[in-house]
Amino acid sequence: MKFRLTIPIALFCMLSIDVLAGKSMTSCTRSEEPMLQVLGSGGPIADDGRASSGYLVWIDGRSRILVDAGGGVFLRFGEAGASFEDLEHIAISHFHTDHSTDLVALLKSGYFSNRSNALSISGPMTGGDYPGTDNYLERLLAQDNGVYAYLDGYLDGSDGLIELNPIEVDPGLTKATRVFSNPLTDIEIFALGVPHGPVPALAYRVRIGQKSIVFSGDQNGNSDAFIDFARDTDVLVMHMPVPENIGGVARKLHAPPSVIGKIAAGTGADSLVLSHFMSRSLANMEENLDQIRSRYSGTLISAYDLACIGF
Hints:
Helices cover 21% and strands 28% of the residues. The chain has nine helices and 17 strands.
């Protein structure tokens, strides 16, 4: 059963979305079932009241997994009632600012937590003009020349800070790589390279028991391997920053709505969550959604900041 929900005025009033009945909440902290919380549903332009890309996976009412940390995610993390101490893994899809710039702000907040155990963080290897995950952290935190050298303890667990354990994934591989596993909580996270123009980028699949959620990251939709990677997932999160008629560089970076619908149908995902909007994809939202609905028959959800979605 579905019902219609309207996004608040500050988040583009009157854009309707379909949500699973009983599955949308203002807080994920009270649920015993796994929940997806959208921390940021926007893009790289500060013109729509949305934070940039960021997602939390809640398990047993705790904020266990963070996927991306774009601008504004630091604030939304606190608003969601999430805890740095509860995080088991941080997964970064790529190193564009709207997916990674609030990581260091979140790390600084971790200084004030009671956390003592290390934290794993995954991301892509270097490529073109973009650093790999190890080098990204070094450029931010290294004692000698890091931008935030006063937080260099995160590199080795010194100065009262926890140690970050980076895991780099080759985005050129067409086979999934496991980046995290915890048998106690029955969580596994896998990464797969996806095509995002010249930018090394990853998609992630999070398995919790018998359930799973897939984050497409930014991609142009030209990967058959991704369809296999996301097959039969409970929830598929895909980014829609461009409209149907987009061309040029933007099309090399992002999938238009028709391709999103085709991919979602190919995976057999139960629910499709659209996110990472920009004004150009919101301008003709119903037309863009129709492109998807004509190809995908599952539950369609348009994300907004702090939305909670069960699966």
